[in-house]
Write a structure and sequence with these properties.
Length: about 190
């Protein structure tokens, strides 16, 4: 018996409902950010991380780790944002190989402009449709899943951390892999 067929129809239904909801929620939040602040979701992730950092800047490696992004993805995104004047790169004085990424005044304005509307969108699309008990359950379930995907530093499974990040990135960011995943889920569940 394959691992795919060991998932029950009810479990596939739960997975598909979650996957569709999360995908549509991501798209709705992305559209709202673009409409309200004229920035993308990835722009906002970087800007918010920099905005919340004590010196309004982070080392490129630290920012990539914080966001869970690969070096190349971060580099391309920062280059696009730098062209628009939202961030700036500076060389690290103490490490010739290191680069600081800092938020500019325009980046700070964009972040502040997006924060309130983004929070309202999250409330409208997510929190307002859940009861207090559902919010607690959702938080608990999310925590348990994250423990499996990203074990605590005390866990000896560094490989599991890397595999979880690679899976998440592939399923969420690469349409061809995401589509292949959905097709194999559909085929594996017995649905046509």
């Amino acid at each position: 018996m394959s691992e795919v067929s060991s998932v029950s129809q009810d479990e596939w239904d739960v997975w598909r409902a979650f996957f569709r909801m999360r995908r549509h929620l991501d798209l709705a939040l992305e559209r709202q950010l673009q409409h309200d602040a004229e920035i993308s979701g990835p722009d906002y992730e970087i800007l918010l991380a920099l905005f919340e950092s004590p010196d309004k800047q982070l080392r490129a490696r630290e920012l990539g780790t914080l966001l869970g992004w690969e070096k190349s993805r971060l580099s391309h995104q920062v280059t696009r944002m730098e062209r628009r004047g939202l961030v700036q790169r500076t060389e690290c004085d103490t490490d010739a190989r290191g680069t600081w990424i800092g938020i500019t005044a325009d980046g700070s304005r964009a972040t502040l402009g997006a924060m309130r509307d983004h929070a309202l969108s999250i409330r409208r699309f997510f929190f307002d449709v859940l009861t207090d008990e559902e919010k607690r359950v959702f938080k608990d379930v999310s925590g348990r899943v994250m423990e499996v995907l990203d074990p605590s530093p005390c866990a000896e499974s560094d490989d599991a951390e890397l595999d979880g990040a690679a899976l998440e990135g592939a399923a969420l960011e690469e349409p061809s892999l995401r589509d292949a995943t959905l097709k194999s889920e559909t085929l594996g569940s017995g649905a046509a």
